[in-house]
Amino acid sequence: MKRFFLLFVLLCLMLCAVGCREDAATTAATTTGTGTENAGAVIPFQSELVSGQFTKFDQKTDVAADAPYIVFSGSAVSCSAQGVTVDGTTAVITEGGDYIVCGICPDGQLIIEVPKTEKVHLVFDGLSLACDLSAPLYVKSADKVTVTLKDGTVSTFADTATPLTAPDAPTACIYAKDDLTFNGSGTLRVEAQRNNGIGCSNDLCFISGTYEVTAPKNALKGNDSLAILDGAFTLNAGKDACKADTIDDPAKGFIYIAGGTFRITAGDDGLQASTAIELQGGRFYFACTGKKVNAKLQYHRADSAIFETAAP
Fold first, then answer.
1. Structurally, how many domains does the chain consist of?
2. Domain region containing 121
3. Nearest CA among 148, 227, 228, 229 for reference residue 184
Protein backbone atom coordinates (compact mmCIF):
# COMPACT_ATOMS: atom_id res chain seq x y z
CA MET A 1 0.00 0.00 0.00
CA LYS A 2 2.75 2.41 0.92
CA ARG A 3 4.64 1.84 -2.36
CA PHE A 4 1.45 2.52 -4.29
CA PHE A 5 0.82 5.67 -2.27
CA LEU A 6 4.32 7.01 -2.90
CA LEU A 7 4.02 6.30 -6.61
CA PHE A 8 0.73 8.14 -6.64
CA VAL A 9 2.41 11.08 -4.94
CA LEU A 10 5.15 11.25 -7.57
CA LEU A 11 2.61 11.28 -10.38
CA CYS A 12 0.22 13.81 -8.85
CA LEU A 13 2.18 16.05 -6.51
CA MET A 14 3.14 18.77 -8.98
CA LEU A 15 -0.40 19.05 -10.30
CA CYS A 16 -1.96 18.94 -6.84
CA ALA A 17 -0.37 22.02 -5.31
CA VAL A 18 -1.16 24.10 -8.39
CA GLY A 19 -4.62 22.62 -8.69
CA CYS A 20 -5.55 23.49 -5.13
CA ARG A 21 -4.60 27.10 -5.72
CA GLU A 22 -6.30 27.41 -9.10
CA ASP A 23 -9.45 25.79 -7.76
CA ALA A 24 -9.72 28.22 -4.86
CA ALA A 25 -12.08 30.57 -6.64
CA THR A 26 -14.31 27.72 -7.77
CA THR A 27 -14.43 26.16 -4.31
CA ALA A 28 -15.27 29.48 -2.68
CA ALA A 29 -18.11 29.94 -5.13
CA THR A 30 -19.57 26.49 -4.50
CA THR A 31 -19.16 26.31 -0.73
CA THR A 32 -19.35 29.90 0.45
CA GLY A 33 -22.37 30.78 2.55
CA THR A 34 -23.13 32.40 5.85
CA GLY A 35 -20.23 30.67 7.57
CA THR A 36 -22.39 30.09 10.64
CA GLU A 37 -23.92 27.02 12.24
CA ASN A 38 -27.44 28.41 11.82
CA ALA A 39 -28.16 26.99 8.37
CA GLY A 40 -30.50 24.03 8.22
CA ALA A 41 -32.59 22.62 11.05
CA VAL A 42 -32.05 20.31 13.96
CA ILE A 43 -33.22 16.77 13.14
CA PRO A 44 -34.31 14.77 16.20
CA PHE A 45 -33.75 11.04 16.45
CA GLN A 46 -36.89 9.02 15.77
CA SER A 47 -36.18 6.44 18.40
CA GLU A 48 -37.79 4.31 21.02
CA LEU A 49 -34.50 3.53 22.76
CA VAL A 50 -32.17 6.52 22.48
CA SER A 51 -32.52 10.29 22.62
CA GLY A 52 -30.52 12.78 20.58
CA GLN A 53 -30.43 14.88 17.44
CA PHE A 54 -28.46 15.79 14.35
CA THR A 55 -27.60 19.40 15.13
CA LYS A 56 -27.30 22.39 12.81
CA PHE A 57 -23.52 22.23 13.10
CA ASP A 58 -23.59 18.55 12.15
CA GLN A 59 -25.29 19.59 8.91
CA LYS A 60 -23.12 22.64 8.20
CA THR A 61 -21.58 22.55 4.72
CA ASP A 62 -21.02 26.21 3.87
CA VAL A 63 -17.85 28.11 4.69
CA ALA A 64 -17.03 31.77 5.18
CA ALA A 65 -15.95 33.68 2.07
CA ASP A 66 -12.52 34.27 3.58
CA ALA A 67 -11.99 30.71 4.83
CA PRO A 68 -8.26 29.91 4.65
CA TYR A 69 -6.72 27.05 2.69
CA ILE A 70 -4.39 24.49 4.23
CA VAL A 71 -2.42 22.92 1.37
CA PHE A 72 -0.34 19.76 1.84
CA SER A 73 2.35 19.34 -0.80
CA GLY A 74 4.92 16.57 -0.44
CA SER A 75 7.37 17.73 2.24
CA ALA A 76 5.61 20.97 3.19
CA VAL A 77 2.34 22.53 4.27
CA SER A 78 1.32 26.03 3.29
CA CYS A 79 -1.17 28.17 5.20
CA SER A 80 -1.00 31.82 6.22
CA ALA A 81 -3.97 31.79 8.59
CA GLN A 82 -3.37 33.07 12.11
CA GLY A 83 -5.14 30.05 13.60
CA VAL A 84 -2.82 27.50 11.98
CA THR A 85 0.74 26.61 12.93
CA VAL A 86 2.93 24.56 10.59
CA ASP A 87 5.90 22.38 11.46
CA GLY A 88 7.28 20.42 8.52
CA THR A 89 4.38 18.34 7.21
CA THR A 90 2.20 18.82 10.31
CA ALA A 91 -0.49 21.50 10.44
CA VAL A 92 -2.13 22.34 13.78
CA ILE A 93 -5.40 24.27 13.89
CA THR A 94 -5.44 26.31 17.11
CA GLU A 95 -8.49 28.54 16.56
CA GLY A 96 -12.09 27.63 15.80
CA GLY A 97 -13.61 28.47 12.43
CA ASP A 98 -13.77 27.30 8.81
CA TYR A 99 -10.83 25.76 6.95
CA ILE A 100 -10.49 24.23 3.47
CA VAL A 101 -7.90 21.46 3.28
CA CYS A 102 -6.41 19.87 0.14
CA GLY A 103 -3.24 18.31 -1.25
CA ILE A 104 -1.21 15.13 -0.94
CA CYS A 105 1.39 14.15 1.64
CA PRO A 106 2.97 10.69 2.12
CA ASP A 107 3.76 11.37 5.79
CA GLY A 108 1.74 14.30 7.10
CA GLN A 109 -0.72 15.12 9.83
CA LEU A 110 -3.60 17.49 10.49
CA ILE A 111 -4.20 18.19 14.19
CA ILE A 112 -7.10 20.13 15.71
CA GLU A 113 -6.29 21.54 19.12
CA VAL A 114 -8.64 24.39 19.97
CA PRO A 115 -10.33 25.39 23.26
CA LYS A 116 -13.17 23.10 24.33
CA THR A 117 -15.62 25.96 23.75
CA GLU A 118 -14.78 26.32 20.04
CA LYS A 119 -16.00 24.47 16.94
CA VAL A 120 -14.02 23.70 13.78
CA HIS A 121 -15.47 23.13 10.32
CA LEU A 122 -13.22 21.47 7.75
CA VAL A 123 -13.89 21.11 4.03
CA PHE A 124 -11.88 18.30 2.41
CA ASP A 125 -11.21 19.34 -1.19
CA GLY A 126 -9.40 16.20 -2.33
CA LEU A 127 -7.05 15.54 0.59
CA SER A 128 -4.74 12.52 0.75
CA LEU A 129 -2.70 12.00 3.91
CA ALA A 130 -0.68 9.09 5.23
CA CYS A 131 1.04 9.13 8.62
CA ASP A 132 3.58 6.61 9.91
CA LEU A 133 3.63 7.25 13.66
CA SER A 134 0.23 8.74 14.48
CA ALA A 135 -3.23 9.41 13.05
CA PRO A 136 -3.20 11.54 9.90
CA LEU A 137 -6.27 13.37 11.27
CA TYR A 138 -6.17 13.83 15.04
CA VAL A 139 -8.70 15.92 16.98
CA LYS A 140 -7.02 16.54 20.33
CA SER A 141 -9.52 19.07 21.68
CA ALA A 142 -12.59 20.96 20.46
CA ASP A 143 -16.24 21.41 21.27
CA LYS A 144 -17.04 19.67 17.99
CA VAL A 145 -15.46 19.15 14.57
CA THR A 146 -17.55 18.82 11.41
CA VAL A 147 -15.91 17.61 8.19
CA THR A 148 -17.55 18.30 4.82
CA LEU A 149 -16.54 16.12 1.85
CA LYS A 150 -16.64 18.39 -1.18
CA ASP A 151 -18.82 17.17 -4.04
CA GLY A 152 -16.89 15.31 -6.73
CA THR A 153 -13.75 14.79 -4.64
CA VAL A 154 -12.11 11.77 -3.04
CA SER A 155 -10.09 12.11 0.17
CA THR A 156 -7.84 9.28 1.38
CA PHE A 157 -6.31 8.62 4.79
CA ALA A 158 -3.86 5.85 5.69
CA ASP A 159 -1.66 4.82 8.59
CA THR A 160 0.84 2.00 9.14
CA ALA A 161 0.99 -1.12 11.30
CA THR A 162 3.72 0.38 13.50
CA PRO A 163 2.53 0.07 17.15
CA LEU A 164 2.05 3.26 19.19
CA THR A 165 3.18 2.97 22.81
CA ALA A 166 2.20 6.36 24.30
CA PRO A 167 -0.72 6.03 26.75
CA ASP A 168 -2.71 8.79 25.01
CA ALA A 169 -1.88 7.71 21.44
CA PRO A 170 -4.74 7.82 18.93
CA THR A 171 -6.54 4.51 18.46
CA ALA A 172 -7.78 5.05 14.90
CA CYS A 173 -6.53 6.24 11.54
CA ILE A 174 -8.93 9.18 11.89
CA TYR A 175 -9.27 9.83 15.61
CA ALA A 176 -11.09 12.42 17.73
CA LYS A 177 -11.14 12.84 21.49
CA ASP A 178 -14.24 15.05 21.12
CA ASP A 179 -17.38 14.99 18.95
CA LEU A 180 -16.76 14.36 15.24
CA THR A 181 -19.22 14.61 12.33
CA PHE A 182 -18.94 13.96 8.59
CA ASN A 183 -21.22 15.31 5.88
CA GLY A 184 -21.16 16.40 2.23
CA SER A 185 -21.42 14.47 -1.04
CA GLY A 186 -17.80 13.51 -1.68
CA THR A 187 -15.97 10.28 -0.88
CA LEU A 188 -13.74 9.39 2.07
CA ARG A 189 -11.45 6.36 1.93
CA VAL A 190 -9.72 5.14 5.09
CA GLU A 191 -7.05 2.43 4.98
CA ALA A 192 -6.13 1.65 8.58
CA GLN A 193 -3.43 -0.92 9.32
CA ARG A 194 -2.86 -0.34 13.03
CA ASN A 195 -6.20 -0.22 14.85
CA ASN A 196 -9.65 1.24 14.12
CA GLY A 197 -10.64 3.07 10.96
CA ILE A 198 -12.58 6.12 12.20
CA GLY A 199 -12.74 6.44 15.99
CA CYS A 200 -14.14 8.96 18.44
CA SER A 201 -14.04 9.03 22.24
CA ASN A 202 -17.37 10.88 22.33
CA ASP A 203 -20.11 11.08 19.66
CA LEU A 204 -19.37 10.01 16.07
CA CYS A 205 -21.92 11.19 13.51
CA PHE A 206 -22.49 10.84 9.74
CA ILE A 207 -24.98 13.00 7.84
CA SER A 208 -24.21 12.05 4.21
CA GLY A 209 -21.35 11.09 1.90
CA THR A 210 -19.64 7.94 0.65
CA TYR A 211 -17.28 6.02 2.95
CA GLU A 212 -14.93 3.13 2.24
CA VAL A 213 -13.22 2.02 5.44
CA THR A 214 -10.85 -0.91 5.99
CA ALA A 215 -9.41 -1.63 9.44
CA PRO A 216 -7.86 -4.56 11.33
CA LYS A 217 -10.10 -3.82 14.32
CA ASN A 218 -13.33 -1.78 14.15
CA ALA A 219 -14.25 0.21 11.04
CA LEU A 220 -16.40 2.87 12.79
CA LYS A 221 -16.26 3.35 16.55
CA GLY A 222 -17.89 6.04 18.66
CA ASN A 223 -17.43 5.41 22.36
CA ASP A 224 -20.47 7.39 23.51
CA SER A 225 -22.54 6.95 20.36
CA LEU A 226 -22.54 6.27 16.63
CA ALA A 227 -25.36 8.08 14.81
CA ILE A 228 -25.95 7.94 11.04
CA LEU A 229 -28.56 9.96 9.13
CA ASP A 230 -27.66 8.79 5.61
CA GLY A 231 -24.75 7.83 3.36
CA ALA A 232 -23.16 4.94 1.50
CA PHE A 233 -20.82 2.77 3.59
CA THR A 234 -18.50 -0.04 2.56
CA LEU A 235 -16.92 -1.37 5.74
CA ASN A 236 -14.30 -4.12 6.05
CA ALA A 237 -13.32 -4.80 9.66
CA GLY A 238 -11.19 -7.42 11.36
CA LYS A 239 -13.48 -7.11 14.39
CA ASP A 240 -16.78 -5.17 14.52
CA ALA A 241 -17.83 -2.98 11.60
CA CYS A 242 -19.80 -0.45 13.70
CA LYS A 243 -19.29 -0.17 17.44
CA ALA A 244 -20.27 1.97 20.45
CA ASP A 245 -19.02 0.77 23.80
CA THR A 246 -19.42 3.15 26.75
CA ILE A 247 -20.50 0.86 29.58
CA ASP A 248 -20.81 3.16 32.62
CA ASP A 249 -23.69 5.34 31.38
CA PRO A 250 -27.02 3.78 30.30
CA ALA A 251 -27.76 6.84 28.15
CA LYS A 252 -24.62 6.30 26.05
CA GLY A 253 -22.92 3.51 24.15
CA PHE A 254 -25.67 3.31 21.51
CA ILE A 255 -25.96 3.06 17.73
CA TYR A 256 -28.70 4.95 15.89
CA ILE A 257 -29.17 4.65 12.12
CA ALA A 258 -31.89 6.54 10.24
CA GLY A 259 -30.93 5.57 6.69
CA GLY A 260 -28.17 4.78 4.22
CA THR A 261 -26.68 1.77 2.46
CA PHE A 262 -24.27 -0.51 4.34
CA ARG A 263 -22.06 -3.20 2.82
CA ILE A 264 -20.48 -4.82 5.84
CA THR A 265 -17.74 -7.44 6.06
CA ALA A 266 -16.64 -8.14 9.64
CA GLY A 267 -14.50 -10.65 11.51
CA ASP A 268 -16.93 -10.34 14.42
CA ASP A 269 -20.23 -8.42 14.66
CA GLY A 270 -21.72 -6.13 12.06
CA LEU A 271 -23.25 -3.71 14.58
CA GLN A 272 -22.32 -3.86 18.27
CA ALA A 273 -23.38 -1.54 21.09
CA SER A 274 -22.96 -1.73 24.86
CA THR A 275 -26.49 -0.36 25.43
CA ALA A 276 -28.97 0.02 22.57
CA ILE A 277 -29.18 -0.28 18.80
CA GLU A 278 -32.01 1.54 17.01
CA LEU A 279 -32.44 1.06 13.26
CA GLN A 280 -35.09 3.35 11.80
CA GLY A 281 -34.03 2.84 8.19
CA GLY A 282 -31.23 1.79 5.87
CA ARG A 283 -30.38 -1.15 3.63
CA PHE A 284 -27.84 -3.62 5.04
CA TYR A 285 -25.72 -6.30 3.39
CA PHE A 286 -23.94 -8.41 6.02
CA ALA A 287 -21.01 -10.82 5.75
CA CYS A 288 -20.09 -11.35 9.41
CA THR A 289 -18.38 -14.07 11.38
CA GLY A 290 -20.28 -12.97 14.48
CA LYS A 291 -23.78 -11.54 14.80
CA LYS A 292 -25.32 -9.09 12.39
CA VAL A 293 -26.60 -7.03 15.32
CA ASN A 294 -25.36 -7.34 18.90
CA ALA A 295 -27.00 -4.94 21.37
CA LYS A 296 -26.12 -5.69 24.98
CA LEU A 297 -29.36 -4.22 26.41
CA GLN A 298 -31.97 -3.23 23.80
CA TYR A 299 -32.50 -3.53 20.06
CA HIS A 300 -35.22 -2.32 17.72
CA ARG A 301 -35.44 -2.47 13.93
CA ALA A 302 -38.19 -0.64 12.07
CA ASP A 303 -39.76 -2.18 8.97
CA SER A 304 -37.97 0.41 6.84
CA ALA A 305 -34.56 -0.99 7.86
CA ILE A 306 -33.99 -3.75 5.30
CA PHE A 307 -31.61 -6.69 5.79
CA GLU A 308 -30.72 -8.09 2.37
CA THR A 309 -30.20 -11.85 2.06
CA ALA A 310 -27.78 -11.67 -0.89
CA ALA A 311 -24.61 -9.68 -1.49
CA PRO A 312 -25.01 -6.63 -3.76
1. 1
2. 2-32+41-308
3. 148
